[in-house]
Amino acid sequence: MKVLGISFGRKMKCGDIMVKEALFQAKAAGAEVEFINTINMEIGHCKACGACSTKRDRGGQVACILKDDYEKLEEAVLNADGIIIAAPVYAVGIVGQFKNFVDRFCPAHDRAALLEEQKKRVEAGKTGEELLDARYFKDRYIGYISVGGASTQNWVSMGLPMLNLFGFSCHMKVVGQIDAYDQGRRANPVFDSHLMEQCQNLGRAIAQSVGKPYDEVEWLGEEGICPVCHCNQLSISPSRSAIVECPVCGISGNLELKDNKIEVKFSEEQINRARWTINGLYEHYHEIQGMIKICVPKLQEHKDTLPKMLEKYEKFDEFINQ
After folding, report:
1. Contacts of residue 267, Cβ cutoff 8 Å, sequence gap at least 6
2. Is the pLDDT of residue 141 over 80?
3. What is the largest CA-CA distance in the chain?
4. Which domain of life is it from (predicted)?
5. Domain residue limits, the chain
6. Residue 76: which of 1, 2, 164 has the closest Cα?
7. Which CATH superfamily includes the segment(s) 1-220?
8. pLDDT for 77-101, tens place per residue?
9. Is the CB of residue 266 less than 8 Å from the CB of residue 253?
10. 36 - beta bridge partners?
11. pLDDT in the model for residue 259
């Protein structure tokens, strides 16, 4: 059992300290641990070239063609059974390097797409190294720590929701999360015994959850509004009806006001189609496949006229200065 800690913040600052505190307890619970700080790693943004999925669909493994430090972090994640991520909030949301990694790692390792590709290979009689890497399909257990300096919580309000983007495509189980804001006044997390205890509990819970069926994993942290991601964000429909949506999980519920308190009731059907569930992942997989069936014939139909329609955009400087 291996638990990986990743800090996307400065070395020996808040994120590093909190992740390492969690790793001490993960090791005490029997885990092998590894720590990576990404501050000096080069992880560029996705170029949307599609090479990773194209290689997969042509019988290879998932591989990004961009040459930087992404692969090192990818390998560490694939080798881990449990993961603890801390990342700083800079402008209401999480630091961009984290999003760069998410954009390159998560769609390429989408569990539903990988399962469908593996199924094709098995049906074609492929074996051994001809199959997709077995690490793509193992269960992983994850915890998030959003780190913010502001004492006003709404200045870090997108921290935990953005961190949750990491796990759902790969069908990871979130064990717990910590909204570690107000670090500016704390000066250093070691001065806050309660916060350090939260980190200890998170590390221990990650290690103790590894290997459990997902539905037997107990949640560690504040309950929040959403029963799946436990975040507090809600989207209001344009019609302003009582039906609201969790923008993190993509599930809908009925908004009610009881004793001056907001409650949202989410049905089991909705909970079972949340983004990180296999049902939710397949829902999106079929959505994409349906888009392809519409898009490709449309492009083929207009292949002779489309270049002319796009000419003024391709030669924008020439046309705009006429």
Report:
1. 253
2. yes
3. 71
4. Bacteria
5. 1-220
6. 2
7. Flavodoxin domain (3.40.50.360)
8. 999 999 999 999 999 999 999 999 9
9. yes
10. 6
11. 86
Give how far Cα 51 sits from Cα of 48, 142, 200, 263, Å. 8, 28, 40, 44
pLDDT in tens, 63-78: 999 999 999 999 999 9
What single DSSP character describes residue 64? -
| Residue 39 amino acid letter | I
Task: Map residue 290 onto helix, strand or coil.
Answer: helix
Asked whether the beta carbons of 117 and 61 are under 8 A apart, the reply is no
Over residues 13-45, the pLDDT tens digits come to 999 999 999 999 999 999 999 999 999 999 999
Q: How high does pLDDT run on average in the chain? A: 95
- Considering Cα of 106, then 157, then 21, then 95, what sign does the dihedral take? positive
Burial class (CB in 10 A: 0-12, 13-18, 19+), 316: exposed
Strand intervals (E) in 160-301:
173-180, 235-236, 243-245, 252-258, 261-265
Residues with Cβ within 8 Å of 298's Cβ and at least 6 positions away in sequence, in order, are none
Q: Give residue 239's pLDDT.
A: 77
Cα–Cα distance, 138 to 129 (Å, whole number): 17
**pTM of the predicted protein model:** 0.93
